[in-house]
Design goal:
- It is built from 14 helices and eleven strands.
- The protein has 397 residues and is α/β, with parallel strands linked by helices.
- The chain has two domains: 5-179 and 352-372, Rossmann fold, CATH 3.40.50; 182-349, Glycogen Phosphorylase B (Rossmann fold, 3-Layer(aba) Sandwich), CATH 3.40.50.2000.
- The strands form two sheets. Strands 8-7-6-9-10-11 form a six-stranded parallel sheet, sandwiched between helices.
- Helix 5 runs antiparallel to helix 6, helix 8 packs across helix 12 (318-329) and helix 11 (282-289) packs across helix 13.
Length: 397
């Protein structure tokens, strides 16, 4: 039975060089992680290396940039105690796993090689496109390698599960949906002319979405709704990104906000003009939890159980997207109807109960695989964790 597991993850801090105890308190890491972790260890990643530094290496540059000696040492010391039955890691932090560990349960927050492939198809700069092709081949190889080393996988949607299964058919993959703590996202008073895009501006697909919306959609939207305001909210917008948008009429960039809920509450419409990416969008779940109407591309809503025209509006070309946003800005009744229905979706399909069930299923799959794994030869280390029983159907995991 899996009583405890070691979770290896990276938290998206703002300004890594300013890491200190005050910042940890500000983002409430101790409060929230302490609620679910028996023992919490924090290590500083330090400066991330530039992609060109790893260009000639066998691993993807994005993976190499997550190499962290303190995290590897911390992982090694924790596993040496023998107190953990499993290791849960993301695809990037897996680079810090030791060669001999309990085979990990790998958490696919995204199908990274698909993101790079989609980027390659849209990049016009020949040098960047050539670099992306190399990175795509390496990333696909890395994800396959990690899959073969793993006991089980978790994906946030059936779409991503199928991608991982095609990559590594032998790996059992359980859908563990992203969730939102719905009761904490209460209704608020909207501004009827505010359109919101929220998301980390340190992720390229979000920056691409904002800049394309500003240049190709916002002008048409302003022609229909002159008073419209486009608000961009999310962590770590670079100075160069801000400069590119500073002269765009009716657009404002908030930068990092401590609490996104008041920002989402203010929006009449939340837009998700994404042209690349995988996984599922927390920005959609958060907007839905606030009963806000969402207009998205098909890729933006990929993997989520939201029906076009009932829970969300989908449009994949700039003209249709601008028309959809203008239409719902002019119809408070439609906004309320679709927003209310969207909240019902997250209440039933993307709540904590769904997360618990998904993680329990993934851990049980790891136990099942351990039962089927033969004992390793003496002296070779444990290739599998000790066999165990199924997790209980109720209670904490």
């Amino acid at each position: 039975m899996i009583f405890s597991y070691l979770l290896i993850a990276v938290m998206p801090f703002v300004h890594h060089s300013l890491w200190n105890e005050t910042m940890i308190a500000d983002i409430t890491l101790n409060k929230y992680l302490g609620m679910i972790c028996f023992l919490l260890g924090l290590v500083h990643y330090g400066a991330r290396s530039t992609p060109l530094h790893h260009l000639r290496g066998p691993r993807p540059c994005a993976v190499e940039s997550f190499t962290c000696t303190p995290m590897r040492a911390c992982t090694e010391s924790r596993l040496a105690t023998g107190a953990y039955d499993a290791v849960v890691s993301g695809i990037f932090t897996a680079v810090n796993l030791l060669p001999v560990t309990p085979p990990p349960i790998i958490d696919f927050q995204d199908a990274e090689h698909v993101i790079v492939r989609r980027y390659t198809g849209r990049e016009r700069n020949p040098l960047k496109r050539a670099y992306a092709r190399v990175e795509y081949r390496k990333m696909r190889g890395w994800e396959r390698e990690v899959c073969h080393r793993s006991r089980a996988g978790m994906a946030c949607s059936a779409v991503d599960r199928d991608i991982v299964t095609r990559l590594c058919p032998s790996l059992p993959v359980t859908v563990v949906s992203n969730i939102v703590d719905v009761p904490t996202w209460s209704y608020g008073e909207e501004d009827p002319v505010t359109v919101l895009f929220q998301g980390g501006m340190d992720w390229y697909p979000n920056r691409d979405a904002v800049e394309f919306f500003a240049s190709a959609i916002l002008p048409a939207l302003r022609a229909r709704i002159p008073a419209v305001r486009f608000v961009v909210a999310g962590r770590n917008p670079s100075p160069a990104f801000r400069r590119r948008l500073e002269d765009v009429p009716a657009l404002s960039v908030t930068g990092t906000v401590k609490d996104m809920r008041p920002v989402v509450a203010m929006a009449a419409v939340c837009v998700v003009w994404l042209r690349m990416g995988t996984g599922t969008r927390l920005k959609i779940l958060e907007a839905a939890a606030m009963a806000r109407l969402i207009v998205s591309t098909a890729i933006g809503a990929e993997g989520l159980d939201f029906a076009d025209g009932r829970d969300i509006l989908l449009a994949d070309d700039p003209r249709s997207f601008a028309h959809a946003v203008a239409h719902v800005l002019s119809s408070p009744e439609l906004r309320a109807e679709l927003g209310t229905q969207a909240r019902r979706v997250v209440e039933t399909r993307y709540a904590f109960a769904n997360l618990r069930a998904g993680v329990r299923a993934a851990l049980n799959e790891a136990v099942h695989r351990a039962d089927a794994c033969p004992p390793p030869p003496a002296g070779d280390g444990a290739a599998c964790a000790a066999p165990g029983r199924r997790l209980p159907s109720k209670g904490k995991w």
